[in-house]
Amino acid sequence: MSSNMSSNMESTETGTLMEQILFEVKRVVVGQDRFLERVMVAMLAQGHLLVEGVPGLAKTLTVKTLAGTVQGRFKRIQFTPDLVPSDLVGTRMYNQKTGDFSTTLGPVFTNLLLADEINRAPAKVQSALLEVMQERQVTIAGETHRMPAPFLVMATQNPIETEGTYPLPEAQVDRFMMKVLVDYPTDEEEFVIAERAIAEPVRANPVATTEQLAALQAECRKVYIDPSLLQYAVRLVSATRTPEKHGLKDFARLRTYGASPRATISLAEGARALAMLRGRCYVLPEDMTDLVPDVFRHRIGLSYEALSEGLTGDALVQRIMAKVAPPPRPLRHEKLAA
Fold it and tell me: Could you give the dihedral angle defined by the CA atoms of residues 3, 6, 12 and 14, in that order, rounded to the nearest 10 degrees?
């Protein structure tokens, strides 16, 4: 009985803290509810985010505001064609007075890193983020430096501009937990945006610490996920690799490669975080199905045939979801037992 009461108190405190963080961000950022929800999911699940949207949609403002609410360090790197890897991770500097080499750490050593227009830098610079994103560490001259915790990379790219851009390597794209598409605000939202822009600037108040955020991340890993939902995630990923086994005979010619095991893990961890955001300590099928497009759209390689037919990654994901059905929603007594 006492353990149930303590877990209920913990979930209430967790929910209150997340509500406070969201409230402070919403005081500054207008609209973009879905995008903001995905950023929160990435933070709780300790995943990285790739954001695609035209300029001026508050992508930078959202991450900067979020960093302020959790009192974390925020760094923004504008990716340009003349960047070199040492501009990101750091380098060894020679001190003429002492005759020794010292390590100067780069801007990636932060809690929230915004890689703005990541596809503007060449592949060797983008590849400098591979170790950082996966291992959460940087190796400079044989010496390993750990990243501060929590650590989140949010990269943006512009979908309408191709001149002077470089495609992201598949190995790096796969390291992003989700790819989120950000759209224009509604007329009502844009009116409020304009109102706030011409008024006195609003600043978000810090409501949590990085230690509290780390505690939320640990709490997120305790959210119950049923084995049937894990099997559903595996079936979805399997359908991208061997579509003929799942009744998707025409699918094979439309894709060049399928999703990696990271997609299965990202889907499970993301569903846990979304369930926690929605005030539950267990995952429901809709938590997972809501995230499938975000987790899959950048992990399926489109063939020339698919591109010639004007298909997108989302279109292929919808075909898979139509064929692979989620498990039934559990009954109330089963939820309580879980």
Answer: -100
One CATH from 3.40.50.300, 3.30.70.890, 2.30.110.10, 3.40.50.2000 for 2-217: 3.40.50.300
Residue 90: beta bridge partners?
A: 105
DSSP state of 253: G
- pLDDT single digits (tens) 179-198: 998 888 888 888 988 888 88
Of 243, 268, 253, 230, residue with least CA distance to 302: 253
Give the tens place of pLDDT for each residue, 128-159: 888 888 888 888 877 888 888 888 888 888 77
Q: Which CATH class is domain 223-337?
A: mainly alpha
How far apart are alpha carbons 294 and 177 in whole angstroms? 8
Could you tell me the two tokens for 163?
Answer: 């001149």
Answer whether 44's CB lies under 8 Å from 270's CB: no
